[in-house]
């Protein structure tokens, strides 16, 4: 039995065919171009594989309100050619199998929850810090959705005394994405994150703001684990800095047994998205 | 068929006996004293009413982790006599019927969700702003719980430029409770909220911070409605101020169809807690 999965990102689509044990049978990476060109390549990849269903973790914003007329449609994205593109309906039509769709971060969260860093707990958040900041939440094996999908990367945090950097988000001053994303770090320092030395004090600032966001998420969602991934977190020295700041800010208000396991790195390398998409697909097959 | 409900607050216990149509059959208010004295009066009230089950919305922090050995026990409260008091087990023992317990704000949220200001939607938050700030969240008719109950009243928000007030919360500088609770308003102005004139600029500050918190809750939980109650919100002129600030801060990042119905006052007067407690009680009866 074969399952299809797509991590549909703004720069690339990772397509995968897996068996029921999550074993990858085939895989390809497609550059994200215009919708019709991208989907032509997607069809081309899947046509040789008799998949029974397809799961998609998509970039967004995407309409995930099942009651809505535009369920599964990409909404107001800066990628103009994709704006209002009915991704779910088009994939159903061209692949001809049942398709499940969720956000990229929800899919990644489900992947880590079922097979990765949160396999042993009942609820977890997955946060990606890269070009943007996004987060998903899974509880009791179910992806959390509100009336629309959460936009947790845009919560605002308390600013550090004396920090005059106004953030890089065009929508909100001092939202977490505008303070800790890759572009935000580059805007603040004038240097790409990967080129900034490990002992540069900017990492303490970044860790502090990430910790402020984690404290807010903790107080609202109370997950059993928080997994942080994404390009910025390739700077592995950030993890201990974040944990230290987190403890300082939370100030024992909620008991967290062990902050080392509470705030952790992903276990599925960069595959949580596609593995989670496959999990979504298995779920609609029932 | 009779149902028992208790809104177990830090200053008073409101006990109620209702029929299956939420009709109140009897009711009493007990001052919160030492646990044994308070519960003696509770037993005294219920002994004449053959209730089939009891629901309790309790002050806290209370352990709501069903897997925990101290499930239903009041934890680290400043009310010393209640610290480590096994409220759930004691009520079961002395009343002799099945007892369901949740936080006061979760119960209140469930009350407004089923019978009040959120009767027509699938998810809602209830926030109380009074001596403290607390919030509950109900989605698809179920009270939301993480690994412990949320402490949403302690999230931190972006500070207004030039605001040097450090908040009144002993745990966290600039958490929302420390900025907008009754005691916070009094600490900031030197005047009790009820005595501050409606056109005093402090209300704009308070509305701004409440709106900052609502934006963060919205981005994380995406509820369909937010209901704000509690003593501070008796200042009804706050509602339009909060809505205006909310729109300004969210800056259209998430589409909210109608902010007038999205942010609203409770409908159950001060009875959402006890009505929600009765709802909890009906649920365990099945």
From TrEMBL, chains A, B:
The lineage of its organism: Bacteria, Bacillati, Bacillota, Bacilli, Bacillales. Signal peptide: none annotated. It comes from the Bacteria. This is fructokinase. Its cofactor is Mg(2+). SUPFAM superfamilies: Actin-like ATPase domain (SSF53067). It holds the Pfam family ROK. It catalyses: D-fructose + ATP = D-fructose 6-phosphate + ADP + H(+). Keywords: ATP-binding, Carbohydrate metabolism, Kinase, Magnesium, Metal-binding, Nucleotide-binding, Transferase, Zinc. Belongs to the ROK (NagC/XylR) family. PROSITE patterns: ROK. One of its GO terms (molecular function) is metal ion binding. InterPro entries: ATPase_NBD, Carb_Metab_Reg_Kinase/Isom, ROK, ROK_cs. Its EC number is 2.7.1.4. PANTHER family: FRUCTOKINASE, TRANSCRIPTIONAL REPRESSOR MPRA.
């Amino acid at each position: 039995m074969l399952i299809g999965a797509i991590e549909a990102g703004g720069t690339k689509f990772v397509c995968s065919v897996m068996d029921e044990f999550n074993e990858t049978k085939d895989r390809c990476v497609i550059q994200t171009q215009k919708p019709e060109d991208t989907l032509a390549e997607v069809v081309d990849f899947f046509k040789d594989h008799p998949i029974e269903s397809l799961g998609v973790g998509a970039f967004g914003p995407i309409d995930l309100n099942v009651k809505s007329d535009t369920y599964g449609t990409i909404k107001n994205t800066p990628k103009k050619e994709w704006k209002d593109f009915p991704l779910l309906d088009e994939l159903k039509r061209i692949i001809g199998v049942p398709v499940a769709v969720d956000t990229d971060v929800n899919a990644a969260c489900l992947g880590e929850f079922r097979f990765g860093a949160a396999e042993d707990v009942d609820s977890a958040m997955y946060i990606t810090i890269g070009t943007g900041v996004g987060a998903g939440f899974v509880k009791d094996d179910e992806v959390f959705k509100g009336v629309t999908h959460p936009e947790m990367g845009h919560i605002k945090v308390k600013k550090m005394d004396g920090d005059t950097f106004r953030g890089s988000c065009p929508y909100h001053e001092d939202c977490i994405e505008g303070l800790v994303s890759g572009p935000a770090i580059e805007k603040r320092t004038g240097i790409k994150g990967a080129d900034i030395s490990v002992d540069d004090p900017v990492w303490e600032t970044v860790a502090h703001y990430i910790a402020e966001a984690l404290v807010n998420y903790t107080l609202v969602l109370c997950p059993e684990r928080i997994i942080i991934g994404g390009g910025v977190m390739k700077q592995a020295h950030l993890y201990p800095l974040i944990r230290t700041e987190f403890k300082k800010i939370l100030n024992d208000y909620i008991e967290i047994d062990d902050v080392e396991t509470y705030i952790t790195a992903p276990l599925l390398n960069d595959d949580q998205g596609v593995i989670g998409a496959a999990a979504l697909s298995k779920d609609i097959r029932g």
